[in-house]
Amino acid sequence: MNGMERFELKRWNLCASWSWDVMHDTCVICRNGMMSSCIHCQARSGSMDLLQDDSCPIAWGVCNHAYHMHCIRRWLESSPNPRCPLDNGPWEFTNVGN
């Protein structure tokens, strides 16, 4: 075989991970990671290590900042003039998803 030794692959362990394509990996409102649920969902479930599920979506604004949907909704409801918590610009939703 052209002087090359042949080898046998006996085992191959693959590992994959994913993350949101966001500027910050932490929700600046609740300070939980974007990959985990917001404090509202964690309190409701009684678990501090609850991974994010379909009931805790991420919301993006036109400024490309992202927050847990429950967090930004409460933030916006507490103000008569909805603003982004990070850049203080007018808040407008562009996408909500999991």
From TrEMBL:
UniProt keyword terms in alphabetical order: Cytoplasm, Metal-binding, Nucleus, Ubl conjugation pathway, Zinc, Zinc-finger
GO function terms (MF aspect): zinc ion binding
Subcellular location: Cytoplasm; Nucleus
Pfam families: zf-rbx1
Family matches, as InterPro entries: RING-box_E3_Ubiquitin_Ligase, Znf_RING, Znf_RING/FYVE/PHD, Znf_RING_H2
The RING-type domain, residue ranges: 27-88
CC per GO annotation: cullin-RING ubiquitin ligase complex; cytoplasm; nucleus
Record pathway: Protein modification; protein ubiquitination
PROSITE patterns with a match to the protein in the record: ZF_RING_2 (PS50089)
Family assignment from sequence similarity: Belongs to the RING-box family.
PANTHER family according to UniProt: RING BOX
Protein name according to UniProt: RING-box protein 1
Name of encoding gene: RBX1_1
